[in-house]
Amino acid sequence: MSNDIISRLQAESASYSKGQRRIAQFIMEEYNKAAFMTAARLGRTVGVSESTVVRFAVSLGFDGYPAMQKAMQEMVLNRLTSVQRLEVATDRIGNQDIVSMVLQSDAEKLRRTEESLSREDFNHAVEAIVGAKRVYVLGVRSAAPLANFLGYYLRYLSDNVNIVTASGASEMFEQIVGVNGEDAVIAFSFPRYSTTVVKGAQYCSSAGATVIGMTDSKESPLAQVCDHVLLAKSDMVSLVDSLVAPLSVVNALIVGVTARRSVELARRLDALEHIWEDYHVYEKRGESK
Description:
This protein is elongated. The chain contains 14 helices and seven strands. Helices cover 56% and strands 9% of the residues. Helix 8 crosses helix 13. The strands form two sheets. It has a five-stranded parallel β-sheet with strand order 2-1-3-4-5, with helices on both faces. With 289 residues, it is an alpha/beta fold. Helix 12 (195-206) links the parallel strand 3 (184-188) and strand 4 (210-215).
């Protein structure tokens, strides 16, 4: 489904059956809600059968309703304001068991991420990080924890890892101004996409750095300025952005890099273990205070 689905529905509505017109009308008027409804619920809402909704999705060129729903969600997620996100989430939750709903939703995003993540791009990303003179990790707002987590572990391998979580464009550019063709940049951006990260990634690309973007869609603003794109499905649960799948990809990236640098990592960890021991950094089992 293209981003112009609303225009398409408006243009073709005259050819729809009565039931199809109800579906199309609801999507055009309440697209932010329709995108998160099951076929059965959408049918009940507009007064048609679930099978009519499924057939309507197929008539639009989709394999079935799930494909249509996925496309609608990708279209609307970045358009929703915080208030709209909360309204949609509240409507989705209803009387469901919240724990089961959230965990099942996260499990589904992990499954979809496993299917959509390009192994070629992943391997290129690992190679770029391993071979870089310096590594910059960019992530702001709700994506900042991803940048901090990745940067934390990459610093076990190198002293030249720069974590950039500045929310303002000016501050970000001050921290990445020295980037060049010997460097690798990992940038994170999920709906609602941060313009700061996109501009930062664009600048790094223009400076010759290898830019790796972790985002939810190849059509996202960040994906357009990156050399390699790692797709990780993200969705909103109430006001919260689910980062389960992106964090899992970050874990895989760390494992991939450390596997390539295992000898160096072992030396650094051995040195750190002695420091941790000497300065009592960690509690020991069985010891009492």
